[in-house]
Batch of 4 targets.
Target 1
Amino acid sequence: MDKSLDYNNLGLLYAWSENVKHDYAKAKAIFSKSCDEGNSIGCVNLGVLYAYGRGVMTDYTKAVELYTQACNMDNRVGCYNLGLLYDEGYKGVRQDYFKARELYAKSCDMGNGSACFSLGLLYSEGKGVRQDYIKARELYTKACNMGEAGACNNLGVFYTYGKGVRQDKAKARELFGKACDMGNQKGCDNYKD
């Protein structure tokens, strides 16, 4: 039995459950114990507390440390969250698209659809990489197939305007519908047009 996972699950109850009164101080202590025992999910959850200032002072430097620890244990959410911090350049974290790209790629390769979508955005916008609509299309397709609604919408835009693909308005409409069905408002708006 993995006690570090049990600790993490208990921490989740205190931090985010609707059935248990939130106690971020308890959640922090439990996530810390889970992380200290080598559970990468505990490290990610502790990092989230620091990134959002839940029960602790907001501390992006500490969040980076914890997400890095989780990413080094091949936790795809840790790599993705760390990539987000570098992509956006939060207080105390210097914006670095190259580093964000590396982290998104690692997380995407581990099956994180959000990371594939974010990596596609970097290629689409030419941030930290040479702008490459074909690579962006490949990543949006992968992310869309993993259930990322925003990626389906963006892929629909590519088909509408022929970015990295042959223009195909029927395919675009299909993708907008898929995005809309997943709850993406832009997809719904584009489907109507």
Target 2
Amino acid sequence: MAADPPAEDIVLKALGDELKRSLTLHLEDLDTPYFIQYAVDDTVTYRIEATHGALVSSDQDRFRMLYSQVRVGSHELDNSNFAGRGGFGARRGLSASAELPTDDDYLALRHAIWLATDAQYKDAVEALTQKRAYLRDRTIEDRPRDFTQADAVTAIKERVKGSFDRAAWEDYVRRISARFGEFKHLQRSAVNLTAGTEDRYLVNSEGSRLRYGDSGALLRITAETQAEDGQRLSDQLDYVAAKPEELPAVPDVLADVQKLADRLAAAIKAPVLEDYTGPVLLDGVGSAQFFRQLLARGLAGQVDPVGSQRREAPSTENLESRAGKRILPVTFQVYDDPRQDKFQGRVLAGHYLFDDEGIAAQRVELVVDGKLEDMVMSRAPTKLFTKSNGHGRRSGGDSPRAAVGCLYIESTKGLSPDELKKELIDAADAEGLKYGLRITAVQGRAGGGGGPGGGGFRRGGGAGFARSVGDPIAVYKVFVADGHEELVRGCEFSSIDVRTLRRIIAAGNVQSVHNNVGGGSPASSVIAPAVLFEELELTRIKQETEKRPIIEAPHARK
């Protein structure tokens, strides 16, 4: 079926007509807008949750959200990238969000857009006035332009059509959650299904007009328990699909649930790892999680807002200062390509065709022969990188910022899994150690998104400070004598930063996918091989723990 002509789309027409009118906004002798952008997410979302075979909630949401952007001044200096005189305020005067009517009522839509634009224009001129005053009293060396030009893009795709048999999917979630009644050693469990469709619109004053859609489904299964010493242990399974019908069948999910329960049972009995310094093999999805946390954010070109007092540690954030320098072994190549929707049959959550600034997604060669050559960029330039490459991505109602989509990490000299394990054993033996460590999961810095299936044996509570990477979880001692493995727990990385990546001495020839969905950042995917570090330091976690429940859970007493 051919796409509807733009004139027949009420949302697109309302956006375009109000855009033309808004460009005439004028307040006394203050600046008029030089750039306006409207983006709309028209979303239908279903959420189902169950525990122990009983439905907890089943909801359907339909909403249209407007994300508007009004810029006054010029590309050289406008109301963006300004944190305020205090230096600790939010970015001011650029983006705002507002709900739109879900009915295709032309005048009602225009009215809502008009209200949002009027308020935002007033904020924009105030922010630019304050920013100019701030800059008159200060000198900022090599301050980049605030915004780059871009060619207009037009792409009108067919609206997304989706079906969702709510009763059938409620039964699906119930059946999966019911299995947890068999696992007496688990204290908590939940099965969550989120699915939906989204039509996205974008128009701007440069002439871009976009309408395209997407659908998706996420099945997330979580379980939690405690070790005898009170340490909280949890594991998580994530299944990402382009549509609900592509999620795995119940028997396949239950097979993974059994493995999850077995892993947690083993973790309960596992000893705590004492302090360790030596070779470490990051294997499977654990390697992809490690790279996402340590490298992905630093590969996104960011500029600090004028007036900001933020000082990021240069070894963990914003790698621009390392451009042209080696950050990985010479055998490593890293690129980002959001255009690919799958990798070896796995759906990639970071896939997209256009970013949130209306720029077509592009492949970007980031690291070539170990050297940092480029960064993923939005339309906010930095000192060295001055052009968008289709990676301006919005998180919630924030302004679009540079972020990775599908990050590929490759080595030209990959080893087989058996060869990597032998390299680990040989490295440990050379150091006079009885064992090396193999890590198959790394907890997210914010406390989520680890584990063999997306979760992991993570600890409860936060350490109260920013870390480069989260705790290593699903950690195994690999003994030099015979290669057998023993599970351990309760450890954390010490002194990890981007420079650590130069300690990699070998990499695998099999790549694993880690999809990062939720958590307040744009969806992303990291595809990475296992990597062997010559030396990492891990220390025992020292924290207070809660006592185990006084009596058993009801399902454990059956």
Target 3
Amino acid sequence: MTPEECQIETLKHIFKVRSKIEFFCRDLIDRMLDHDDSKLQDPELEHFTRLTPKLKHSTYMSDEYKGFLELLKPALDHHYKNNRHHPEHFPEGVNNMTLVDIIEMLCDWAAACGRHADGNLYQSILKNQLRFGLSAQLTQILINTAADMEGMSVIDYAKKHSVK
């Protein structure tokens, strides 16, 4: 093989990889544009309008929070049915999700943390590991990604967000 032939083969590979990455980019852009649209109309809007302010002042996965989730059950059932970035959308939870679903899920968790006075994505990931039966490997990938989203090393991120 000549250097030119090697370059041609390498360029073919590069373009194939770019095409595959473009698939994910397009899917993520679609998810970004459509995220949680179902919350903007009933049956979800009515319930979320009433309970979102109360959720804001609760701690994620506390008894109070779980009580609000029970009151939101009709809206959440509809929401989970129509939004595949929730493990509850699938019969086997996270095991049926795609990487794009998981990316949207993590972004959703990160944004939801901002709604709580004591929101903490690191702690949410750990709580959701138990809630959804996430593997240690996927949990670590989510933590690594959350740290990267904040521009931090994983060690610094864990130190900053660990409960003291």
Target 4
Amino acid sequence: MSSGQGRQLLFARLLADPGLAVAFAEDPERFASHYGHDRADARALAGVDQHRLAVAANLALAKRLRWFGLHILEALILWERNEPGTGRLTRLTIRSGMHAAESTDECWSRVPAIVSEVRGMPGGKVMADLLQFEWIMHELMARTEASPVANSAHPRVHPDVVMATFGSAVTEVRRMVLDYKDPHTVSWTETHYLIRRQGDQGVRVRSIPKDIKEILESCDGTTAPSSIAKELGWPLERIEQVIAQASAQGLTLTGPQVC
């Protein structure tokens, strides 16, 4: 095989697998030895096509993520390729093995580990919040039916409701990322959300005040409203008002309302 043909074969192989492309970029000669390619071809390819390989790995990974429904991570990967000094999220995602997953469940199961690592990266907090937000919505929709709830005398948050706090306005960040805009321009402001599954129709998200979140999180089925008021330092009337409003909206379950 001619040197030119060898480089073409190597290049085609790297284009087909983002994991191999990243491994090649880290050490071309070691890669060639391990996978049976000519080391001279590897050196030549690394010298002239490194940028193209990086872009190809990025695009191949994004396509794979789209297949598994990870549209936010796909958008972050595509946004990253146009920014200086990028590639961290692409490499991290590939190292997680997500690109080689054989099922949607296997792919999504790697998200929590990626969130933890991304949060520790410089400038990674916004991306970590966004991926955590996607994970929560995915988990809610993945449930085949509402979790069974034991009968209780005190208010309990519905199993299809999750409260979450993020360091930024994560819904705004999400819109920006899907438009391939820089998510880091969003101000870093603690924001609280109520995330609710609405059957098979999707997930509804709304921002809520911190005190509402704290009250609803205290509705665990074992704590009386008077105890919640004492623990949070709020008037009992305020606690009862919030619980009554939540019950009217189907957000809490109480006594005979529990199936």
